[in-house]
Each structure stands twice: as C-alpha cells, then as structure tokens.
Amino acid sequence: MKRNSRLSSTLHILVHMTETQEHALTSEQLATFIHTNPVVVRRTIAGLRDAGIVTSLRGHGGGWQLGRPPENISLAEISAALGETLLPFGTEPESPGCLVEQAVIAALDEFRVEAERLLAEKLSHITLADLAADFRRRYELIGVTSHAV
C-alpha cells in the first residue's frame, strides 16, 4: 500500500495498536511499524487523542493506547480527526484571480463535495476492528499463528 497520506500511516499504526491492546506502545515502537521518526508519529496521532480515538500515558510503561474498543472506531472518524481525504484533488483556489481556475473549480466542486460525502458514508461502516480482523485473517493464511510486536 502506497503511504502518501497520514490516513494510511495512521491506520497502519492503529491496527498494530488493536493487536496489542493489553499494553501501551511508545512512539518509538509505533514508528518502527511505518519506518519513520517517533516525532512524526506523535504529530500524526495527536489529533486522534483530541477525538478520543487514542489516549497517551506518561511515565514508565507509558505510551499510546486505543481510547475505546476498535469496534467503536470508524475509518470515517479517523479520517475526520486527521483532516484527511482520500480524493486525489482539491478545489481550494491557488490563484484566486485566475478565471480558468475559477471555471475548473466551478465544474469540479459539486462533484468533489458529493464524492467526499459518499466516501465518508462508506468509511463510517468500516471499523478499526474490521481492519484488524482482516489483517489477522491474512496473517493466518500465510501460516503464522502469532504476531510479535
């Protein structure tokens, strides 16, 4: 999966958190899952804490945990907390005085708004638990019985 958005990286992290709900994971541990720096992890999932999707614990044994059961966390909620969209284009003007840009935005904006609404609706029916279950199913298909974190 090409990870060109914070959403895909965050979902990757959250599935690992779902698999290890019995203990908190540090930013350093989470960073290894997506091959990045722990600071990037902290910045990326800070908005999830504000939305109650994750919690952070300080001190020895601290780290990040899910804020509630994964079956109560939808992908739409995660996407909204990150301010992410999966659509490949936006309609925010880059050159507000450009008449060509205004014509393009007029043609695409209604479509973009409807596409984002449909996407959010579909994502609201997929939970973090659904992703984790599919991950476990795929993991078992390759003949592995446990996933070390």
Describe this structure in words.
The protein is mainly α. 54% of the residues lie in helices and 5% in strands. It contains 6 helices and 2 strands, in the order H-H-H-E-E-H-H-H. The chain has helices spanning 6-19, 27-33, 38-50, 75-82, 99-123, 128-141, and strands at 54-57, 63-66. Strands 1-2 form a two-stranded antiparallel sheet. The longest helix is centred in the C-terminal third of the chain and has 25 residues, at 99-123. The radius of gyration is 18 Å and the shape is elongated. The two termini are 20 Å apart. The model has no long low-confidence stretch (mean pLDDT 88).
**Shape designation:** elongated
Share in β-strands: 5-15%
- The tally of strands reads 2
Largest sheet: 2 strands, antiparallel
Uncertain parts: none
Average pLDDT metric? 88
Euclidean distance between termini CA atoms: 20 Å
| Category from helices, strands and their pairing | mainly alpha
What is the number of helices? Answer: 6
Spatial strand arrangement across the major sheet: 1-2
Helical fraction: 40-55%
Radius of gyration: 18 Å
Instruction: Report the order of strands and helices.
Output: HHHEEHHH
